[in-house]
Design brief:
mainly alpha
Amino acid sequence: MTATSKLFTRLAYITAALTVGLIVFGAIVRVTDSGLGCGNDWPFCNGTIFPPLDNITAWIEWLHRLFALLIGVLGLVMLYLATRRYRAENRLVLNMTILAAVLYLVQSILGAFTVKLDLPPTVVTLHLTTAMLLLGGLLAAGVFAAHHSRPQYEPDQTTGLIYMTALLSLVIIITGALVRGSGATLACIDWPLCNGQFWPSGQGQLAIIHMIHRVAVLSLGVSLVLLIWFVRRDRQDSTVRQLALVALVAYLLQAVVGALYVWNTAAPLWGALHVGLASITWATLVILSIFEWLNTQSERKNQMANETI
């Protein structure tokens, strides 16, 4: 691996880690009701570059924007390095870096719309979803750049389960954002039941939204348990096994923190931690999916080469 490749890989992982931090910071913005701390003004804050020293909510929102700007700068450096190093070789790295740059731009536009339109739930949800896809793109660029020859095998049931589980983890993030954005966080004040019922029929739309999120969370848990079983049965690669285990542990912590969030009447600390663990679960499953795709793609290429011969 060349010095440029090493620098790019490290930068991709650092930027991905900072993106997780940005996602958690965004959760802090939401749970502290600081989303309009700078009013409807963007990119300025209530008409000024720096918010007043005594306005805490404005500073929280302003620092969130500054954090996002830092990631944008690092993304530009990544794009420069990818163009220089991978334009003629390993185009997957360059393509993922370009995709991440586009997603960052879309996320920034959605962030501006979120402020301008007084935090509509749909735009808030799209904003978080795009942030998660950006995290996935950065991780993909880093893994593609650092990937070495690994065990090769044909796609099977475990392959499909890995992809489905990663998709489910994104679904629970989206439904969780809808819960928060629609004001359904405390529509169910107990856990795992909803106000004493398994299904909140007759309790209104917000309770239904809340329980849909919980059902999605339960589905992810079942999928992860199955994934652990399938991976241990069908995969000898220790890295793949470890990634599946890390995803399950992050999920269990996320579920516990989600319960604590409800039991503690939506305390901001638990809310931010809940989103952070969700992003770690998603990131781990993205990396696992990329490894699986690379391993199965390598086997397909070998088969095609043999058929040609």
